[in-house]
Specification:
single chain, 223 residues, 9 helices, 46% helix
């Protein structure tokens, strides 16, 4: 039985995803016992219906994706609509413009607004580590923690550098056990996935999930 599967959010966020693609994603999540699927907002309703008989699998979607500079009210409306359509988890992109400008109140305020709109659902805040210095990663992680969100998430996948062990360790050192961490972007093999979990990641946003499971099985067979 796979150990890594319980960390994986089976993800498909391409702009050309079809119903057939989302159907396959959901079926694979059920088959391999992934913790969640992560789909575009357009496909939330379909994924929720497809997984109605598997309530243990979360339906996650993205808000303010991928650039994060939408007006806070728009992000809140997106979150509200996603929840109404069946999303059980929300991944929102932080306002990097405000963070870089030092407008920390704006960052914190919009996170809280999305939390309110999400009506008790899990909210993960994407801080886009690939665009941040170490000091900014620490600052952003503290803001996510103080805002009351449930997870800090590394990346959207639209930066040159994805999730790294170094950044997961830095975030974990910053937030301790008070906040969960989702590592996402460019997790393409079992070795990387396992290293991120060991460093402190609670979830893995993964596109190549089946490849990682195959590599895990090969690794365990060699032990």
């Amino acid at each position: 039985m796979s150990e890594i599967a319980k960390y994986i959010e089976h993800t498909l966020l391409t702009p050309y995803a079809t119903e057939k693609d989302i159907s396959r994603l959901c079926d694979e999540a059920v088959q391999h016992k992934f913790v969640a699927v992560c789909v575009p907002p357009y496909w939330v309703s379909y994924a929720a219906k497809r997984l109605a008989s598997a309530p243990q699998i979360e339906v996650c979607t993205t808000i303010g994706f991928p650039l994060g500079f939408n007006a806070p009210g728009i992000k809140a409306l997106e979150a509200k609509a996603a929840v109404e359509q069946g999303a059980t988890e929300i991944d929102m992109v932080i306002n990097l413009c405000a963070l870089k400008e030092g407008n920390l109140e704006a960052v914190s305020s919009e996170i809280k607004e999305v939390l309110s709109a999400a009506s008790g659902r899990i909210v993960k805040v994407i801080i886009e580590t690939g665009h941040l210095t170490k000091e900014e990663i620490v600052l952003a992680s503290k803001l996510v923690l103080s805002s009351g969100a449930h997870f800090v998430k590394t990346c959207t996948g639209y930066t040159p550098v994805g999730a790294t062990v170094e950044n997961i360790r830095l975030i974990r050192e910053t937030v301790g056990d008070q906040l969960r961490i989702k590592a996402s972007s460019k997790i393409r093999d079992y070795q990387t996935a396992a290293a991120l979990v060991k460093a402190g990641a609670d979830r893995l946003g993964v596109v190549q999930s089946l490849k990682i499971l195959q590599e895990e099985q090969a690794y365990l067979t060699r032990q």
